[in-house]
Write the structure tokens for this entry.
Amino acid sequence: SKEKIALFTIFGGTGDLAQRKLYPSLFKLYQKGYLREHFAVIGTARRPWTDEHYHEVIATSLASLNADPAAVTQFASHFYYQSHDVTDAQHYVTLKKLSAKLDAQYGLQGNRIFYLAMAPNFFGTIAQHLRSEQILTTNGFNRVIIEKPFGHDFASAKELNDQLTATFNENQIYRIDHYLGKEMIQNISAIRFGNSIWEALWNNRYISNVQVTLSEKLGVEERAVYYDNSGALRDMVQNHIMQIISLLTMDQPVEFTEHDIDVEKVKALRSLRTLKPEEVPANFVRGQYAATDQVKDYRSEDKISPDSNTDTFVAGKLMVDNYRWSGVPFYIRTGKRLADKFTRIDIVFKRPIVNIFNHEDVQKNDDENSRLNANVLTINVEPTEGFELRMNAKHVGQGFATTPVKLNFALDSQSVSDSPEAYERLLHDVLNGDATNFTHWDEVAYSWKFVDTIQKYWDEHTPTFPNYQPGSMGPTAADDLLQRDGHEWIYKS
Ligand code: BG6
């Protein structure tokens, strides 16, 4: 049977993440039969909720799914609430008793999943108490799921990791990067290693440059306090973008397994050229949004300091120093209050050297503009999910001119709605003990080391902010970054 057996303990059970993502995802796993009789959930937080109230919260968090009310009630009956303070040892004594009781009641075989949906400064305390109060079992599995931020630089990330590894082994730790749960991010490996045409061209002989764009339309919204201490570089580049870069650049894993993929990702991240401090300004651009008639500038947002130098935009050029990628720039960009909400990856191939269709005009052939267009493979991650390939074809009609055409594949709306949401997929992976789509410590470490150089330079040099208009694609310096190399962004607003 596909049924999985486990006790979930969610620290931060009253929080936003639990209500928006975790309860709906657990419910979907329940509807699909991955969770049936043999599971229970303990929600814990400081607020003094009763089980009855907790069940109402669960039902409310599922409201948009329009599920059968009887199924919702049945599902919610597996949830138990325990109020306490995670720094109080007594809490864990109660938790241990409740865990043992539920284990016996639901036949959970000692399988435990601890979800730390809380601020990271509590991770160490919780892990330590789980061990000292012997809440970890010896007859089943013990797995811990943590959310970002994993520190704010390499040193703090290491400290956090040391605290966790005092209790858990690396193979018991599941670090969520929700981008790794997205259908089209997982598809990067499928297209690369499932098609000889791509893998044959996936190198510096055929690829001119690669562009990764994670664009957001909204501003900083409710997470101002966190965001102002983080900024776009730490919030999006250190984790999501570095993971995407490693999936794009890694060599073929021997087998498609957690271990083999990690080996290749780490090799890829280690091959990234580390910048010297003085090279930062030429390779990385930061931005902060200004005001328009409709929206406030970043510094005027609620809970943001009026002289904040936090980056709400970042663009950068990464070089990978190995045989496959030498000479190929990887351009990345992400930011708040940009033109639209989307994620896409553009693989820009080299243009044909000669345009034979213009051959009579030798002069023209030297002119950049008379050259054929580059082929571009676009991986549309969201909201459209699919691939697009730009090619040159004959212009219809008399004479012989070429024109760009597009081959297009997009998942239909049924497939998109059937496809599990990132958190559902990732929780399922944890139940299966499969950490392929999670971030491993060595990947986190190399990503931080790369990002630290840039952040440090920025912290030491005052920017001129604000420097971009909401609704644009960031400051013009982000366009200059490519122009200097003779390239341009494929997506323009
Ligand atoms: C999160 C960031 O990791 O990713 C947010 O903290 C950002 O600032 C979010 O909005 C974007 O995720 P998605 O799935 O909406 O592209």
